[in-house]
Request: fold
Amino acid sequence: SAISPAFSPSSKTVKEGNNNDDTKLRNGSPTVRHLNATFSDLPAPHWDWEEMPPAPVPRLDGASVQIGDLLYVVAGYGSLDHVHSHVDVYNFTSNTWTGRFDMPKKMSNSHLGMASDGRYIYAVSGQFGPQCRPAVSRNFVLDTKLRKWDELPPLPVPRYAPATQLWRGRLHVMGGGKEDRHEPGLEHWSLAVKNGKALENEWRAEIPIPRGGPHRACVVANDKLFVIGGQEGDFMPKPGSPIFKCARRHEVVYGDVYMLDNEAKWKQLSPMPKPDSHIEFAWVVVNNSIVIVGGTTEKHPITKKMILVGEVFRFDLETLVCSILYVNYFACSY
Reply:
């Protein structure tokens, strides 16, 4: 394939959906939004993409897990003032959205940690409600065969978008944003689980992660635990706001890569080719590699607008080095 030049489109205009409860309308017409397009400034082969059926509702900072040929898409913002409380299901065999069911009423609506063992989906902590409302420590587990929810022991403290993964029979949760939504957490806990049940009543403290923060890819491969990318800092609630209105704060996006193995000690590996955040559900393990699609990087230095990552990265599980697979002009990780 040819190598694509740097590509920096400014925006893409979209109309939001149809007239239902999950779509904001103005004077009876769909809301028009100007979205930041992706930015690709690293040379890489360009691949063509096939567009799939759109999601039933727009989502930001939701969660997703694939089990077999089904993709479970959970919670998320519809807008800053509206959050979703349901799960949409996509069938890769029929290429259609085939189902929808409710979440528990007390479950977080965004910034969840999430992991699956192939049947059970574990949903950890996150933000309850719209805008920049407080995080909660409540945790839930979904039996995808029965579509039945149960509650798990709460985290010691709430976290926003913590790195979450199942490893060696334990549900590991680490990092994330602290209760103020901005300060990065370093704590690392684990809970023994089996078949959707907690085998312990309390979370166990584990070795803290060297660098904290939310929105990181957390992957188990070759019996090793990897934590990739992320950020320090996030929007915070405006002081005194009764609705916890979001206010912008300084964020530092990074491309750090950490690994935990038999030595029970974090090892820092070579970083990603560029800082990358919001990739907690934007990865897949294939051909002894972790493939990471899109994400967000440092904000534009002048406009301060969010820049979406236009590259797809490959982390080689043999060499433990991350490289660029190709340029993807219109992907993002939400």
About this structure: The mean pLDDT is 89. The first strand starts at residue 3 and ends at 4.
